[in-house]
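Here is one chain, start to finish.
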Amino acid sequence: MVDDGLFERFDCDAVYALHNWPALPPGTIGINPGAMMAAADRFEITIQGRGGHGAHPYQAVDPVVVASHLITALQSIVARNVHPLDAAVITVASIQAGDPWP
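Its structure:
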């Protein structure tokens, strides 16, 4: 909305936002100068492997193992790249691997 010129069309002195925060007691309002709470984005990664026989796993490329390593690496982005006093969160909230048996 800002990029579309909202404040060029409508003059504004302040902006207030509301975000549900169930941890606060009823009737309480949390106030913080500057940014507060996290944004939500979505990403999708497709990993393709190479199947093999259970008796010969060394001949396969298991996409579940690859995905597990990727999730661990993603979780370390904040820990190793963001100052501890800065706010940042990366959450891998869902993973789908393989197809159910027919």
